[in-house]
TrEMBL record:
Name of the featured protein: non-specific serine/threonine protein kinase
Domain Protein kinase as annotated: residue spans: 24-300
Species classification: Eukaryota, Metazoa, Ecdysozoa, Nematoda, Chromadorea
Entry EC number(s): 2.7.11.1
Coiled coil: none
Membership in a protein family: Belongs to the protein kinase superfamily. CK1 Ser/Thr protein kinase family.
Cellular compartments per GO CC: microtubule cytoskeleton
Keywords: ATP-binding, Kinase, Nucleotide-binding, Serine/threonine-protein kinase, Transferase
InterPro entries found in the cross-reference section: CK1_Ser-Thr_kinase (IPR050235), Kinase-like_dom_sf (IPR011009), Prot_kinase_dom (IPR000719), Ser/Thr_kinase_AS (IPR008271)
Length: 369
């Protein structure tokens, strides 16, 4: 909180009810944090159409990340709406704040975990295994479009709005404020080219979930997002904590991540997942994770628990009829999506490819002037 002498950046993102943003009108506050607020908004022309307006002050350190987030979400949806990705309806920058109007979503995984009455401070295996597959699907889709998220955590995965049947049981990935492109598509060459890794990178992410590579100040690649997801699922496993769950001291957390063997970190997880962390330990920045290996492990957890994709989730009431909801994209036991490799990158760029990316980056910077 700012001191009495400091200006409160939040004052720039506090809007009165009925304020209009394009075709949208402000309603109640849904959420707020240190950087901004999220409001429920209604379409002026069609009151049955609702969305969320996210606003951030430009006075925060580094400025608002909304412009970056909207750009990435639009890129991910450029060929039409896709599963697990919210839609941006409107985005703009004002003198004091930035805002975007996007898909209205429900509770995040952290909130659902704390409210769960079936399993104390976590989820049953039948629930978190399916959540894990959905999160993995979302992460892979982001990767397949050339970005790494770099802040995978329960708060950044949200269920759909409960009154919107098409999305209510779908997990959505959000908050791309720390995202970074790791590859660029070159239409003329008809290929993706990796962005060359920096020799050293700053710490980016949330301490509890960052991969060991982040603590070593290595460039984050696709494997680091997947590693963070594994930590998230360990935490969601019926409240069985990560070894560093309640430690906020970076040096101690770092030492545990770098030194504890996989079998200790995974000690409370089902045996069918034993191969996931050892696989992640073999990857460098450029190598593609074996998403299918992770998917098959999670699907095996489902089968072991005698759970199907349309079984009831922990947070759903007993009278819910999951079969009445539309089939989701991930509900495929073969995991064909997780085998696809549209980018085809597993090695560093060649000198010629590096020159191409440098040239394109230079042109982009000139065009922004």
């Amino acid at each position: 909180m700012p001191s009495e002498k400091e200006e409160d950046p939040m004052k720039n993102v506090t809007f009165h009810k009925n304020k209009k943003f394009g075709d949208w009108i402000i309603g109640d506050v849904l959420d707020e944090g240190g950087f901004g607020k999220v409001y429920h908004v209604t379409n002026i022309h069609d009151p049955s159409k609702v969305a969320a307006l996210k606003a951030e002050s430009n006075d925060i350190e580094g400025g608002s990340a909304i412009k970056l987030e909207a750009m990435i979400l639009n890129r991910l949806n450029e060929n039409g709406p896709v599963p697990h990705i919210p839609i941006v309806y409107l985005c703009a920058k004002r003198k004091l704040y930035c805002y975007m109007v996007m898909t209205l979503l429900g509770k995040n995984l952290r909130k659902l975990k704390t409210l769960n009455t079936v399993m104390n401070n976590g989820f049953t295996r039948g629930t978190w295994s399916r959540i894990g597959i959905q999160c993995l699907y979302a992460i892979k889709y982001v990767h397949d479009n050339g970005f790494v998220h770099r802040d995978i955590k329960p708060q950044n995965f949200l269920l759909g709005y409960e009154k919107e049947k098409e999305r209510a049981r779908i997990v959505h990935i959000l908050d791309f404020g720390l995202a970074r492109p790791f590859a660029t598509y070159f239409a003329r060459e008809k290929k993706w080219i990796a962005r060359k890794a920096r020799g050293s990178a700053e710490f980016r992410g949330t301490l509890r979930y960052t991969s060991p590579n982040v603590h070593l100040r290595k460039e984050q690649g696709r494997g680091d997002d997947v590693w963070s997801l594994l930590y998230v699922l360990i935490e969601l496993n019926g409240g069985k904590a990560l070894p560093w769950q309640n430690d906020s001291q970076r040096e101690r957390v770092e030492q545990m991540k770098l030194n504890l063997p996989a079998k200790v970190v995974m000690s409370n997880m089902p045996g069918c997942m034993d191969k996931v962390m050892p696989h992640l330990e073999t990857l460098d920045y450029y190598q593609r994770p074996d998403y299918h290996l992770f998917f098959k492990a999670l699907w095996q957890v489902m089968e072991n628990e005698k759970i199907t994709p349309n079984s009831k989730y922990d947070w759903e009431p007993d009278n819910v009829d999951p079969k009445s909801y539309p089939t989701a994209a991930w509900e495929n036991p073969s995991g064909s999506f997780f085998q696809l490799d549209p980018i085809g990158i597993n090695t560093p760029p060649t000198p010629a490819e590096t020159a191409l990316t440098t040239e394109k980056s230079g042109k982009t910077k000139k065009s922004k002037k």
